[in-house]
Structure of Transcription-repair coupling factor:
Amino acid sequence: PKLSRLNSTEWQKIIKSTEAEVEKIAKELLEIYAKRAMVSWYSFFWDEKKESLFKSSFAYRYTLDQEGAIKEILADMELIKPMDRLLVWDVWFGKTEVAMNAIYRSFINGRQSAFISPLVILAYEHYDSLSKRFAEFWVRIEVMSRITTAKEEKSILERLKKWEIDCIIWTHRLLSEDVRFKNLWLVVIDEEHRFWVMDKEKLNRMRANIDILSLSATPIPRSLNFALNGIKDISIIATPPPRKQPIKTMVSKWNDEQIAQAIKKEFERWWQVLFIHNRVATIEHTKHYLEKLLGKKTRITITHGQMNWLEVENRIIGFKNQKYDILLSTTVIENGVNFFNANTIIIDDADTFWLWQLHQLRWRVGRWATEWYCYLVYRKENVADDAKKRLITIVNNTHLWAWFEIAMRDLEIRWAWDILWIKQSWKSKETWISLYLKLLEEKVEELKTWLKHVNLNCQIELNISYYISEDFFSSEADKLHFFRNIESIETLEDLDFAYKTFMEWNDKLPQEFENLFSLLKSRIMLSAYWVNSLKKVWQSYIFEFDKNTSVEKIREFLDVFDKWKDFALITVHKIKAETKLFKSDLDFLKTILKK
């Protein structure tokens, strides 16, 4: 960014614009956070014997980061609020194994799970991995995608409803209206930023009432992670597996002799080559050019996104089985598909790729203990400044823990908010990234404080007795302490903990005690939708919303609490339900809590 004087009008405008942008991002994040905080959710239990057996059956030793991520994810699953955790990892760092620990816990708890992939090829890679890993544990795995036949799809959907499938792996088809599960409680999403906008919106709606584990190989800098502390739950796998070799990365202008030499060198060692050309219109021409350069006997196969997916799958399998010498492909293979018999990748027109694409692609090749090569080739005489920065960054960061440096550089060049599911493109390019993240951190903390004070003020005035006899307490001080603690509770998680604690202390709690906890639970849930008060007025129950409540928020309230369409709108910020529909005020309250 260009420099401005700190006391100049221009700098003040930049700061004002950046603060407005940061506030918008923080509010969107807090919106998701608030929805999750108000939901009472199923808590997955821990089975030490079964889970220890599953971990010990893994063929390798977990890295420290893998152990840490598994611990954080499983701890989330034990809470009574829905999990919404982002697992950030670098290529080859073992994220699928971490996700499988969550899937296995879901299975031993008698719950279904789903694994969503943005690409058909990747879905089948995951199916292969999960089928092998769970083979000894009786987990019923199935895969479905756009290449599944209509007959197979019908059978899979029926088996899902009957709970004859424990874990389903598929693409965005999961988000269709006709998909029904018997008891889906966990969804694992791979590379969510690659989904279409409408799919992302559906996934965001799921976040309020289901456990979500998102996986992303687009790394988040530690400074951004810190700025989102308490709002976005993030686990990071930054430790490379043992014996993993760095990849030698070189950048140069296109040169026939150099390209031919690099490819032939691999052929002499009986290795294959991955060649990335990201233009479908000219990919056939590139194939003919390579055949001319290397000889007609060179076996080259092509894959790209406009081909039939079954054909793409067959060609990739053929390449993996060494039927071809070169796989000439677009970026259709950039995520998840690994080629162990290819030790060199050549990326044509590398100046047109984003940093995260280049980083992902260069790790698609190679085995554990061998040297790997990545050639970044450009053709233009004058490469754009941003493209030069990307190429310099990727060449200078080839070590195994380089992804954080790449992430920070990528943020400065591109600003990838898409991995946090925010419709955002960084406009404030005049602001240094460190200042931007500092402003974001401050705004998140400010809004969290504001949310705490504003959102927990719902007053409930119903004819429900919650008077607890003096005999229940050992002293007046004990009673005062009890009510102070109860009134200070702000989350369903804390309320549930308090309830369980009192249940342990007392064999049988009076009905008034149960009523009190129902009232407190209702207050927390209704406050999340900005309901200021719930009162019984004549023959109606009246919900009155805060005057700043949006129409969208009220619509969400109705979606959750009025599934049977019993409520009626009085004004924009007032909704009523007729008392005759319920046996009593307590029955009305319990009906709300069930919904």
User: Anything to note?
Assistant: Residues 44 and 78 are 5 Å apart (CA to CA). The chain has 20 helices and 18 strands. The chain has three domains: 20-111+183-237, 247-399, 459-594. The longest helix spans residues 9-37.
